[in-house]
Amino acid sequence: MRSRWRVLLVVGAVLAAGCSGPAARPAGGGGAADASVVYAKTDGGTTFVRNYNVMGPATDKAPNMELVYEPLMRVDYGDGGVVKPWLAESWTFSAQGKQLTIKLRKDVTWSDGQKFTADDVVYSLGLPIEKPDFSIAGVTYKSVKKVDDATVAVTFAEPSYATLNQFANILLPMVPKHIWSTQNLNTWTNPEPTGTGPFRLKEFKPQQITLQARTDYWGGKLPMTTYKIIPTSADALKAQLLKGDIDWASASWPNGEKEYVAKDPDKHLYQLYSNGGAMSVLFNTAKAPFDDVHVRRALALTIDRTAVVTTLQRPGTEAGPTGLSDQLFADWLDPAYKGKVQKVDAAAAKAELAAGGWTIDNGALVKDGKRYQPSILFNSDWGWGNYADILINTWKQNLGLQVKGAGQPSAGYYDKQNLGQFDLAAASTGGSGVYGVYRFLSSSYKVPIGKSATLNQGRWSDPQTDSILASMERTDNVDQLKTLGRELQKIVVDKVPFSPIYNNFYFVDINATRWTGWPTPDDFDHIPFVGMGPDTILTMLKLQRRGS
After folding, report:
1. Confidence label for 75 from pLDDT (cuts 50, 70 and 90)
2. Are residues 123 and 191 in contact, defined by beta-carbon separation less than 8 angstroms?
3. At 180, is the secondary structure helix, strand, or coil?
4. Picking from 257-271, 419-433, 479-493, which range would have the lowest pLDDT averaged per residue?
5. Dist. CA 518–CA 150, nearest whole Å
6. pLDDT for 326
7. How many other C-beta atoms lie within 10 A of the C-beta of residue 283?
8. Residue 208: enclosing H or E segment and its boundaries?
9. What average pLDDT does this structure show over 180-192?
10. DSSP helix/strand/coil, 350
11. pLDDT, greater one: 348 or 27
12. For residue 415, which phi and psi values (nearest 5 degrees)?
């Protein structure tokens, strides 16, 4: 049991809102004889796309593929972000940290009955190397080879202790070589997915997906027979939860403790788990004027973080300037930044612009005769328009700068962000450990505007950042990692590749009328947040039918 963040139910931030229009009650959503768990998805539009090619280039894909395809490892956020086994049974680094030997579980089968072996792992890990456009997890290893049927060896160019968490990324899943190697992965949609996970696809409809629980899953027997996914909106979700039409969702609910939990504290669960990161303004540093630190500082100095969290109805969740959560990283934070939140400072912001030779004329940034009218990209499926307006108004009031809103639904938002087709973007930053939070800043992930980025969508390129990240990869000494992490914090604060707004949390909404055994923020070793792969699976394995 871990009990690290008991204050979580009074802090948080919105990540997901919704699409328009209520969803119909799913078939088989209730009743004593029904052994289905129903999940309502608020951030994927009103219909689903049947594309289970989890590693292909398409952005718009079917939801919850992590219940079919699994990673080698998992991150235990209840234990400080430690990487733990999943499909991998164990692993060891060589003395120099350049080779990782991974031992695999021997009891795993694909859902078509074939055995999961090292050949599948070599193929899966090799795909991002052979096809860089598929490297959506941002891999850092250089090669992988088979040692025997249950062992693989992964080689890095440099010592890479800190990069272990990439093998716990659900964006680097294991896929069956005997099926995938015969397909054109650029165009194949994998309509009948075969994975190692606890579910197989039973029925696909644009507004309801039904997954069938496997009876031969290596991780154990599932208590439910099916798992159903429906699209919904943020407003409709609240009514569905209160009526008991759905069992599970992942969405913020301001005042949820009063409007939902208080109506039936035993069955209405609204939970928050810190993920250590923040919602931030990400600067596109590959283009003017955001390649100028003075402009980045000026905009960071005029973000009204308190107004944003007040509108969220989550007071006290303003992010510190490092983007690292005080709750998770208290021992890693530079004391100069602990508990600090940047207040709006218009005078300092104007001084920064002046130092960079910038003026503002008729709402535009001007330098050397060139005018720049910036826009801010945000995900409209998250309901982020209100918060973008707060930033836009603050920049106008304090600087006279007119920033345009550029809301996009999820697919368009991620496309534009990855391609670098933005000026500013409201983006989530975070990860496992300090290195995991900051590794997206490595210039090794930088690609030209117009080419899809795996990480580093802000196109940050800074030799000092690269040097520190490389040093973190080369050591497993905690004291050295803390020192290096504080150097990175200073870069983020001083050079401002991104500017944190508010702390991020995983939001979990549960109606426990049909199912009990859910973790809580006071007692968990896995987070019941749909989309986290192994954590989602562990949650489902431990559920019990109420009254059974």
Report:
1. confident
2. no
3. helix
4. 419-433
5. 34
6. 82
7. 28
8. strand 208-213
9. 95
10. helix
11. 348
12. -60, -50
Identify each DSSP E strand in 86-177 by its residue range: 88-93, 99-104, 143-148, 151-155
Helix (H) or strand (E) holding 377: strand 375-379
The model's confidence at residue 312, banded by pLDDT at 50, 70 and 90, is confident
CA distance 386 to 289: 25
Burial (Cβ within 10 Å: 0-12, 13-18, ≥19) of residue 105: middle
In this structure, how many other beta carbons lie within 10 angstroms of the beta carbon of residue 89? 16
What does the block give as tokens for 155? 């080689």
Q: Which residues have C-beta within 8 Å of that of residue 184, sequence separation ≥ 6?
A: none
Which residues, other chains included, contact 3 with Cβ-Cβ below 8 Å and sequence gap of 6+? Answer: 522, 523
d(CA 352, CA 355): 5
Structure tokens at 265: 């504290």
Strand partners, 227: 37, 211
Structure tokens at 369: 């005769």
Measure CA 120 to chain center. Answer: 26
Please give the average per-residue pLDDT across 334-338, as a whole number.
94
> Regarding beta strands 424-429 and 375-379, do their DSSP bridges make them parallel or antiparallel, or are they unpaired?
parallel
Distance between CA atoms of 385 and 377, rounded to whole angstroms? 10
Can you tell me the mean pLDDT for 106-113?
98
Question: Which domains, and CATH codes, for the chain?
Answer: 56-181 (3.90.76.10), 199-273+507-545 (3.40.190.10), 276-505 (3.10.105.10)
How many whole angstroms separate alpha carbon 158 and alpha carbon 155?
A: 9
The answer to whether 400 and 392 are in contact (CB under 8 A) is no
- Nearest CA-CA partner of 454 in 135, 129, 141: 135
